[in-house]
Amino acid sequence: MPLLLADAKRWFDDSLMASMRAAGEQPLTVAQGQIFARLDAEGTTVAELSRRLGVTRQTAHQAVHGLLTLGLLEQIPDPASARNRLIRTTAEGARVHRRAQAALAVIEGVLSDRIGRDNAAALRHALTAPRGEPPLVEAPREGRGGEA
């Protein structure tokens, strides 16, 4: 199932990136695109972004740096900490994000048409259902005597 989920995500990512390029938008990496979905309106630190994305701070910093260079994000002082800077979208970044969101809505509609509306609704329901904490499963032991 993890591979199926990864393949489905790649289908969305590939479609979004191709659609944005076709619309004349600056090409972004998938990692850069994910930054927008994880930002708070008032701004988010790189450390918090890395936690939300499940990547290292260096990886998050590289993605953010590219978006700063493109003028889609900006850094501002963090009022809660003189040591930190907050990352937030610029007006241009917000425009690009809105365009991406609109494209994703169309892509989702295409998926719904292809797999059926009921299946798409069931998929959304399954993916948004509470899963609880990830289980800790003991790996099966191999090579022990007396086991079948």
UniProtKB/TrEMBL annotation:
InterPro entries hit by this protein: HTH_MarR-typ, WH-like_DNA-bd_sf, WH_DNA-bd_sf
Biased composition (Basic and acidic residues): 139-148
A matching Pfam family: MarR_2
Chain segments carrying region Disordered: 128-148
Highest taxon of the lineage: Bacteria
Recorded coiled-coil stretches: none
Protein name per its UniProtKB record: HTH marR-type domain-containing protein
